Amino acid sequence: MSREEESNGYLDGLTTTEIVVSAVVVLFALVLFGSLLTGGLAPTYFLYLVGLAGMYALLSLGLNSQWGFSGLINFSVAAFFGIGAYGTALASASTSPIAGGLPPVAGLFAALALATVLALFIGIPTLRLRADYLAIASIGLAEVVRIIVRNQDDWTNGSAGVRGIPSFFEGWPVLATLPETMPTLVFGSGPGATVLNTPFWQALLNVGLVLAFVGASYLVLRRAHRSPWGRVLRTIRSDEDLARALGKNTYAFKMQSFVLGSLIMALAGVFYAHLNLYVGPGDLDPITTFYVWVAVILGGSGSNRGALFGGVVIVAIREGTRGLPLDAAPARLLFIGLIIVLLMRFRPQGVLPPQRELIWPGTVDETPQQPDTGVRETKAGEK
Amino acid sequence: MVLDLLASGLVFSSIIVLGSIGLSLVYSIANFANFAHGDTMTIGAYTSLVTFGAVGGLGGTVLGIPFGFFVALLVGIAVAALVAVVTEKLVYDGMELDSIGLLIASIGLAFIYRAVVQLGFGAQSTRYGIQALRPIEALLPYGVRVTQHDVAIVLSAAVLVTGLHVLLQYSDLGRKMRAMADNPDLARVSGIRTDRVKLWTWIIGAGLAGAGGAFLGLYSQLTPRMGFNLLLLIFAAVILGGIGSVYGAMLGGFLIGMINQLTPLLSDVGIPIGIEYADAIAFVIMVVVLLFRPNGIAGEAS
Question: ipTM beyond 0.85?
Answer without folding.
Answer: yes
